[in-house]
Amino acid sequence: GAGVSQSPSNKVTEKGKDVELRCDPISGHTALYWYRQSLGQGLEFLIYFQGNSAPDKSGLPSDRFSAERTGGSVSTLTIQRTQQEDSAVYLCASSLGYRSYEQYFGPGTRLTVT
Amino acid sequence: GQQLNQSPQSMFIQEGEDVSMNCTSSSIFNTWLWYKQDPGEGPVLLIALYKAGELTSNGRLTAQFGTTRKDSFLNISASIPSDVGIYFCAGPGRNTPLVFGKGTRLSVIA
Fold first, then answer.
1. Strand B104-109 relative to strand B85-92: parallel, antiparallel, unpaired?
2. Which residues of A touch B101 (CB under 8 A)?
3. What is the mean pLDDT of residues A2-13?
4. Which is nearest to A31 in space by CA: A14, A12, A46, A53?
5. A55 DSSP assignment
6. Residues B29-77: pLDDT tens digits?
7. Which chain A residues are Cβ-neighbours of B45 within 8 angstroms?
8. Is A104 helix (H, G, I), strand (E, B) or coil?
9. Cis? peptide before B92, omega within 30° of 0
């Protein structure tokens, strides 16, 4: 079946502009996660959604970052007033439920802020 | 906070050699996951371990859940060029759904 998809695959933006990154999880997965991966680094947790519950935003690095999930499916990560340090690969993952630790990742969106 | 330490950070091996890497923590985990990330791709789940002492294989890959519950090991037998990539261990976090190690970068010399 279809895996997690993300768009765009690459995004170049100017400092100060807003960007939106999209994630389409695996059908039937109720939990959705966003991570950030800087060059050569591990994965930094940003936010997760479980069903219709309020999201856990504890990993968001600043109030310029926000995310929403519509209809329990597609999610959008928004970064406002982008800064050069926001340049990274943004990865989305989904799982059957929050307590299912087996997360399945999309290919990521590479964001470059110039 | 919780940290997963992966060793080695990187390794170069000849094609056909066996590979061993490990992941250790100062705290107990009840689940260990191993992922592989190819360049330009997202991590792919290789093996999940749920029981101390458990040994699980996936093709040429074998992973073990350490008996102390503070470590896990991944072995790759008879490496091939497509084994190149970064291998991450992960486990349930106290404050995050999963906590990841920084990865072991594997390079295979044909």
1. antiparallel
2. 42
3. 96
4. A53
5. P
6. 999 999 999 988 999 999 999 999 999 999 999 999 999 999 999 999 9
7. 102-104
8. strand
9. no
Interchain contact, A31 vs B88, CB within 8 Å: no
By the 8 A CB rule, do A92 and A6 touch?
Answer: yes
Predicted confidence (pLDDT) at residue B11 exceeds the cutoff of 80? yes
Amino acid identity, position B109: I
Distance CA A38, CA A75 (A): 21
Q: Which of A90-94, A99-103, B104-108 has the lowest mean pLDDT?
A: A99-103
Give residues with Cβ within 8 angstroms of A66, minimum separation 6.
A60, A77, A78, A80
Q: Residue A26: which of A73, A83, A60, A64 has the closest Cα?
A: A73
Chain A's closest residue to B102, CA to CA, is A42
* Measured distance CA(A42)–CA(A31) in Å, rounded: 21
Q: Which two tokens stand for residue B50?
A: 């749920």
Cα distances from B15 to residues A23, A52, B79, B110, in angstroms, run: 37, 48, 5, 5
* Nearest Cβ partner for B96 among A45, A91, A107: A45
* Residues in Cβ contact with A78 at an 8 Å cutoff, skipping those fewer than 6 apart: A18, A19, A20, A21, A65, A66, A67, A68
